[in-house]
Amino acid sequence: MDFQLSEEEEAFRNEVRGFLDDNLPESHERTPDFLTNWSKQIRERRWVGFSWPKDVGGGGGSIMEQVILKDEMAQRKAPSLGSCFMGLAWVGPAIIQYGTEAQKQKYVPDILDGKYQWCTGYSEPDSGSDLASLKCKCERDGDDYVVNGQKIWTSIAMWSKMMILLVRTDQASESKHDGITCLLVPMDTKGIDVRPIKNMSGGEMFAEVFFDNVRVPVENRLGEEGEGWKVTISALASERSSIAEVHGLIRKIDEVKNLARGTIRAGRVMSEDPGIRRRIAQAETKIEAMRLNGMRFLTKQLKGEPLGSETSINKLHRADLEVGLGELALEILGSSATLMEGSEPTVDGGAWAKYSLNWPEVVIGGGTPNIQKNIISERMLGLPKD
Amino acid sequence: MNFGFTEEQELLRAEVRKFLDQNASLDRVREIVEAPDSPRTEPALWARMAELGWVGLNMPEEHGGVGLDLETTLVVLEETGRSLFPSPLISTVIAGKAIERFGSAEQQARWLPGLADGSKIGTFAFLERSDAMGPEGVETLAKPDGDELVLSGEKLFVSDAALADLFVVAVRSGSDAQSISLVVVEKGTSGAAASSFDVMDLTKSVGKLSLEEARVGVDCVLGTQGAAWPATQWLLDLGAALVTAEAVGSAEAALSITTEFAKERVQFGEQIGKFQGVKHPLAEIYVDVESFRSLVYYAVWAIDQDADDAQVAVSRAKAYCSDAFPQAGIMGVQLHGGVGYTWEYDIQMYLKRSKWVRPMFGDADYHYERVARLGDL
Ligand SMILES: Cc1cc2nc3c(=O)[nH]c(=O)nc-3n(C[C@H](O)[C@H](O)[C@H](O)COP(=O)(O)OP(=O)(O)OC[C@H]3O[C@@H](n4cnc5c(N)ncnc54)[C@H](O)[C@@H]3O)c2cc1C
């Protein structure tokens, strides 16, 4: 084992650290002006889309450099690298891999510049975990496709300019995975109706999206007709490292520890409660396991071996922790845990109550734990499919 | 950056696995440990392993070892864990490290060559009747008498006690909480008697060392008399890390045996591995084994490098393992149905191994509490 960086990697890390020393103020001193300037600078350095090839405007960073960059940024709680979340996470990679030259030129720079948001139209009312059963209908009509159907749970649909959409172009295909096509759709196209859905926190972050004879030019098809599954699922797979998540969880567990130290109930400091201590230690251990699992996956990648479904390990840990840390905080707080912002005995303005309702985004949104366990048992252990 | 093994280490792994497959199949292991009055090891195999350099792998070359790092030993342990190979390897490695790290040049020259070439078996004797992992658990007294120490007390749960030729013993040198010394007691010392217990896991030998006014020379003290608590703590950490490393192999084997069973056994017209009630627990075991594998890889590295976070790294690994491996053992038996309960099927051997692993060098309670403490709680 060897945790040493090469000379070039070390130099790159120093470059990132130097940049952060010079340009990143403490969290409470970050003004809107700072953000504008910051966005410009990281873009100029090509740290947005750092893993993408240079010829499409990315940074061409090696796997190890990407890790270093993310790690340093996360440690210093820097703002995210780029603002077009889904564009950077999976739309961009799919376009780079499967898009035409014209599509690359049209969309990739805007994603890097964060000009507008993309949303993801995959799930349907009857097709969630079983995504490949999706039915949203799509027929060719001259140089257009005509889309009729419905999507649901589409995050930030109401604020997005573009959608990456999966539709069914072949109703009769033998395998349900065939006959799916991917389209890049402007959200202001006639016939698209976005209806926000209120979630259990009271916020409106996702929406139902209805398609009524929506005409999409054929040139907006990503990849070949019938290859939408390959185009999107392989792109989803490009989302690998858990570094940012691990840092987020470390921050969260530190907050939970502070909460325990500062909460006195029935005359007892909660950080002295053996049950609470053990659960905090368990959560911390699990986070460290995620970090180290990630390092093993990284080592595999660096050796040029393909990563399989073992990354589901960390998805399961993360799901557990997202639920568990919220629950732990509420148990530390006791009765005041249930109060939302405004009531006098709330702690941290009801932040923990709010946090404890956030987990579905991670736990359900990214493929449920049951599905992750299916993936592991079938692909890693070779058990029969159900 | 390489959080994995070198090519040489992978080659060694393949070699050890081949050796164990050929010489220590589970059937053979059963023969060895189920024999009447079995010593719970096979001296001929131990000698061959020593010849191959696997016992003295991390011991200094000048004393007959191979001089490699602890990670290389970890590779061997994963394999001995997989095959439940009964041997005093972990005990001997700990005793060797104690002498190498805390002993004088003379002491190293006196004891290490025998350990490295397998002719002498070593072990570490720490726990007593209180079962306490802290210095307060050490009540065995070392009374100075000229240039000798007179030792009185009883060391329990000593791994490979009945096999060992030399014992690294933690003893009390004063009333100060941390006034602990490490002394080497050789087999045959008058007043020192070792015996073995009946252990649930037949592939492990555990016993006790009684010390009744046993006399050893002060030249048997490792390091400074009365100041060896940090060294003792280090040895406990080393033990926890090595036990966890071996447990990775055992738990992985338990998972693999159960997975193969789930592919073969048919009920309701289906392979039972098709049912989520079967496949999901197996996926959970996989997640756990891979996770404590990562934790212990790092822990072994951290100990070997004297990294700042070595203690917490060890505690995380052992804590996770102490919960997860017994759970894997229980699930393994349960998912086998009735045959899982039989002596004949192998899965029960892994269940018993998990029960041996759980308290060894600290259980989950102990280590999670330590994680909390080291994390400023
Ligand atoms: C906050 C949030 C944001 C989201 N954003 C988007 C988005 O932007 N775009 C998008 O397309 N989708 C989005 N989704 C949808 C998400 O991908 C789906 O919710 C998810 O795939 C589950 O599908 P479902 O809701 O239909 O549940 P179902 O698939 O109906 O699952 C219901 C329950 O059944 C279980 N289950 C289903 N199949 C199996 C099986 N084979 N074995 C065992 N158990 C099973 C599941 O684990 C779950 O517990 C979002 C969801 C959330 C919560």
- Give the low-pLDDT segments of chain A: none
Rounded to an integer in angstroms, the radius of gyration calculated over CA atoms of chain B is: 21 Å
Q: What is the CATH C-level name of the largest domain in chain B? A: Mainly Alpha
Structural class of chain B: alpha+beta
Beta fraction of the residues of chain B?
A: 15-25%
Mean pLDDT of chain B: 97
Task: Looking at this protein, list some descriptive labels.
heterodimer; A: 386 residues; alpha+beta; Butyryl-Coa Dehydrogenase, subunit A, domain 1; Butyryl-CoA Dehydrogenase, subunit A, domain 2; Butyryl-CoA Dehydrogenase, subunit A, domain 3; 3 domains; 4-stranded mixed β-sheet; 12 helices; 10 strands; 44% helix; 17% strand; B: 377 residues; 11 helices; globular; binds flavin-adenine dinucleotide
Write the layout of secondary structure elements.
The complex is a heterodimer of chains A (386) and B (377).
Chain A: H1 7-23, H2 32-44, H3 63-75, H4 85-98, H5 101-113, E1 117-121, E2 137-141, E3 144-155, E4 160-168, E5 180-186, E6 192-198, E7 204-217, E8 221-222, H6 228-236, H7 243-262, E9 264-265, E10 268-269, H8 274-302, H9 312-333, H10 351-355, H11 360-363, H12 369-380
Parallel strand pairs in A: 1-4
Antiparallel strand pairs in A: 2-3, 3-7, 4-5, 5-8, 6-7, 9-10
Helix pairs in contact in A: 1-3, 3-7, 4-5, 4-6, 7-8, 7-9, 8-9, 9-12
Chain B: H1 7-23, H2 26-34, H3 43-51, H4 70-82, H5 89-102, H6 105-116, E1 122-125, E2 141-145, E3 148-159, E4 166-172, E5 180-186, E6 192-196, E7 206-217, E8 221-222, H7 229-264, E9 266-267, E10 270-271, H8 276-304, H9 310-336, H10 347-357, H11 364-374
Parallel strand pairs in B: 1-4
Antiparallel strand pairs in B: 2-3, 3-7, 4-5, 5-8, 6-7, 9-10
Helix pairs in contact in B: 1-4, 4-7, 5-6, 5-7, 7-8, 7-9, 7-10, 8-9, 9-10, 9-11
The structure holds flavin-adenine dinucleotide.
Flavin-adenine dinucleotide is lined by residues 120-123, 128-129, 153-155, 206, 360-361, 364-365, 367-368, 370-371, 374 of chain A.
